[in-house]
Structure formats: structure tokens, C-alpha cells
Fold:
Amino acid sequence: MRAIRVAILLTVVMTSLSAVASSHGAYGLASDSVNREVVIEDPEQMTRLPVKPSPIVLYPPKAVRDSLESTDKIFYSVEQMPLFPGGEVALMKYLQENVKYPPKAAKDSIQGRVVVKFVVDSLGYVGVVRVVRSVSKDLDAEAVRVVKTLPRFAPGRMFGKAVNVWYTLPVTFKLQDILEQEKPKDVEVRAEFPGGKEALNQFLEDNVKYPPKAAKKRIQGRVEVAFWIDRSGKVHDVRVVEPVDKDLDREAVRVCKLLPDFIPATVNGEPVEVIFKLPIRFKIPGLKSQYLNSVQIDLK
Structure:
């Protein structure tokens, strides 16, 4: 009897098993693709009735079943990820209401995105918290502190069973852009450094110190800072608006905070508060630089 073979390839893509299999080194789990071949031996039956292979019931590989039974296994991706009460929008709102900008970081104009990962256990509680992308010691610590206060999640699930899951969360710290703040219009007389531009340049050249770490790494560039000059001519709220390097940025901010009182700007003869932008170029002799219109600080 002539046999007709009908091959049916059943590829079952299971997101949870794929993620688990990707961490094979950690858990030793199996592959996520299953191939089956159905063979039909009777050609006469095929001419009269459509052939439907019996449904194939798939079960997790033994390694996966063992992991589900273990209380200390932590999955990176599962069928149903942990859910914050109210969803992602509620989570973002919680962070906005509870994150406190560290005063020291704000004073030093430090901002950026801290990425943390933490375990949501099988009961929905936050467990181990780790920083996977750091910005600064103070910002990192604040991100970890807030994550540890998160309320109970709906736990992640694998094959219907609640399991421990790693959860990644970025926490962004951003200072208000000084250039976005309200500033007076129609300034008649601009704020001026005592002695004019040449005196300002000389002050910077005398006080800016090239950071040793940046010099060792041959880092140079133009740091642009902005700050407010109030009605009495005092400088405050110094921010970096065009950064180059952490050490160069800090040095530029440090020196700007040392600036003496300016002659304030005026409108209709009355002193007003204005924003003053100042570019400071750090230059290493022998290296080319594209910046010309700025105060140059040479490495000595």
C-alpha cells in the first residue's frame, strides 16, 4: 500500500519559555521550539475525509517545572509581568510624587537617568534592589530609596503560577532648564562684569583649574553655563546647559559661583533679574579644537 506522508510543522512560540531559555546559563532550561511530524498512512481515507491531527498538548520542560516549584528562582521575563496598582501611569505618578531631588546633586547641577532593577517576589513585594546604570552617589541612593517604598504589585506569573521576577525601572532626575524660566523682555542695559569682558576673561583664567583627571584622559571642550544675575548683581542658580565632561562641568560651575557682583541689567532705569550665558573652553595644547568664541582655559 502506497503511503503518503504529510508533514506538519508545529512551531510554538512561547515568550516566557524563550526568555527563560535565553538565561540558560542561570537556570539550564530547554529550547522553546517544538517540531512534530504527523504521518497519514491511508490514502483512501484522505480522499473522503479531511484529516485533522490530534491536538498536541505542550507542557513546560522538566527544568522549567522544577524552577516553578523553587521559591528562590528569579525570572527575567514571564507570561504575565508584575503589575503596579493602577498600571504604568500610576507608577510614574508615584515616582513623581515621592522622589526628592537630593540637595547636594541639585547644588552641583547633577542630573540624569538612574536605571534600577529589583525583584518583585511571588507575593508582589519588592525585594532586592540594584542600580544597573549609575549617575551619581546621591541620585542613585534616592532612586533605590523610592523603589524600596513601592507598594505591593500584582505578582508576575508563569504557567499560571506566581513567581519571582526581575523588574527594570528608569528614574530620571532633571533640573528645571534655566533657559525655560521666565525672563524679562526689552532689557535696556545688559548686566556687565566689573571692568568689562576683558576683566571677566582674566578672572576666569586666574581661577579656573584644569581638572587633573580630565587632563590625564586628554579631555577638552567647551562647557556652556548659564546663571541668574539678580537686581543687586549677585550670581545664583548656576547650571550647565552644554556639558562636556563631568569634571570639566563641575569646574566651570565652581568658578562661576565665585564670580563677584555684576552691574545689574536695567529696564526703564530699574534693575531687573536676567540670565547670563557664559561659554568656557578647556584646551589641551596640541589638540585641535573647534570652539573659538569662548574663554579659553589652557592646560598648564
Confidence is low (pLDDT under 50) at residues 1-60, 289-300. The chain is about 30% helix and 25% strand. Residues 178-298 form a domain with the TolA/TonB C-terminal domain fold (CATH 3.30.2420.10). The chain has three domains: 15-69, 87-173, 178-298.
